[in-house]
Structure formats: structure tokens, C-alpha cells
């Protein structure tokens, strides 16, 4: 392993967040960073840690087949409520999306804490304001969301056929689906805590 590859390895190891090729190049100077990353990925293949790319950013992570060894020592995170899970899914599939759009899709108002929980988890961030009356704030997912769920980009989110095949969607006949899509504009109030 040459000195340039070692320098790339050191930068990645010392970083507390995933880095782009440009970020790495800013630390190590001139050289073929992509070739160095490929060499390092091959070097760490089948080891206890691996070098992975998620959302065009590189980082080291525990090999997926050994992750169970570390789970015993981790604090078990609080499970998301149904409201928070639905809100996260809507943001991931429709981003950037405003609070009113989330409420229209869910059919209920969002309690204040729901978005706060998702933002505290580092999975959702505020986006730009819409150029519409009231200039509503929009929400989008973060790189932390991609990393946590093992996605390279939002294009890797499962499609409707994948969700049906996994049994995560209730089978609806076409008439029921059409009624649900047309629905009325009445919005209920959400009672769930995030």
C-alpha cells in the first residue's frame, strides 16, 4: 500500500462523518482518490470493517455480518411511533414536502413533536421555503437517513411492488383505492405522540 492510499485511509478513519471524494482530496492533495478508495475497499473486503459508499460519501463501517456482535452493547433506540414512521416515509418519497402536504397525504394533522423527533434523530432537515403564499417551510431527508437505512440514494427506496411483495401494504381493490385517492378534504386531528 503506497503512501497516498495510506493518507486516504487515515483521513477516512479520523473523520467523524462520511466524506466525498472532493473532501478527501482537500486533505490529501493531488492524486487519484477514486483509485485509492477502490484499493482500500478491496483491502478491507472480508474483514471486520469495510469501506462503503453511501450517497456519494465514503466511510468505514462494521461488516454487516458482524453487526450483531455490537448490538448487545448498544443502547436500544426508542422506536418511532406510527405517526413518525408515516411522516418519515412521506418525506422520503415526496421530498421536498411541506407540513401541509404531509398532512394532506396522511389525512391528519401532525403533532409538533413528530417532526422534532425525526429532526433529533438526524433523519430529516428543513429545506427551502416554497415560493407560494405563506412561504411554507419544506422538509427533506438527510445523509444520516441514507446511512442509517443503508441506502446509496433515495432511488434505492423500495417501490410499491417491493412493498406489496414484502407484505407491508394491505391489498386494496381498484375501487377502494380510487375512493381513497379521491377522498374528501376533511382533515382529522392526530392524537398520537411522536
Q: Can you describe what's shown?
A:
The chain has 194 residues and is α+β, with helices and mostly antiparallel strands. It folds into 2 domains: 3-71, Arc Repressor Mutant, subunit A; 82-182, Arc Repressor Mutant, subunit A (Orthogonal Bundle), CATH 1.10.10. Helix content is 45%, strand content 13%. It is built from 10 helices and 5 strands. It has helices at residues 3-14, 21-28, 33-44, 67-71, 82-94, 99-106, 112-120, 143-148, 160-165, 174-182, and strands spanning 49-54, 57-62, 97-98, 124-129, 137-141. The protein has a 3-stranded antiparallel beta sheet. Strands 1-2 form a two-stranded antiparallel ribbon. Strand 1 (49-54) and strand 2 form a beta hairpin. Helix 1 crosses helix 3 (33-44). The longest helix has 13 residues, at 82-94. The radius of gyration is 21 Å and the shape is globular. The chain starts with a helix and ends in a 12-residue tail after the last helix. The model is unreliable at 183-189 (pLDDT under 50).
Question: What's the rounded overall pLDDT mean?
Answer: 81
In terms of structural class, how would the helical and strand content be classed?
Answer: alpha+beta
Corresponding CATH architecture of the largest domain: Orthogonal Bundle
Radius of gyration: 21 Å
The count of β-strands is 5
Q: What is the 3D shape?
A: globular
Amino acid at each position: 500500500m503506497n503512501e497516498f492510499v495510506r493518507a486516504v485511509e487515515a483521513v477516512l478513519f479520523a473523520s467523524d462523518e462520511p466524506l466525498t471524494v472532493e473532501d478527501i482530496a482537500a486533505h490529501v492533495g493531488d492524486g487519484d482518490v477514486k483509485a485509492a478508495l477502490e484499493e482500500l475497499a478491496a483491502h478491507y473486503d472480508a474483514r471486520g470493517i469495510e469501506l462503503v459508499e453511501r450517497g456519494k460519501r465514503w466511510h468505514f463501517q462494521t461488516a454487516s455480518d458482524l453487526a450483531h456482535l455490537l448490538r448487545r452493547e448498544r443502547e436500544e433506540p426508542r422506536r418511532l411511533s406510527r405517526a413518525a414512521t408515516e411522516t418519515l416515509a412521506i418525506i422520503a418519497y415526496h421530498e421536498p414536502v411541506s407540513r401541509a402536504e404531509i398532512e394532506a397525504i396522511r389525512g391528519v394533522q401532525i403533532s409538533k413533536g413528530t417532526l422534532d423527533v425525526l429532526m433529533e434523530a438526524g433523519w430529516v432537515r428543513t429545506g427551502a421555503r416554497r415560493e407560494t403564499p405563506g412561504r411554507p417551510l419544506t422538509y427533506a431527508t438527510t445523509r444520516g437517513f441514507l446511512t442509517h437505512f443503508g441506502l446509496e440514494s433515495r432511488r434505492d427506496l423500495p417501490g410499491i411492488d417491493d412493498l406489496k411483495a414484502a407484505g407491508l401494504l394491505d391489498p386494496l381493490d381498484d375501487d377502494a383505492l380510487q375512493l381513497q385517492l379521491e377522498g374528501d378534504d376533511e382533515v382529522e386531528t392526530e392524537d398520537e405522540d411522536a
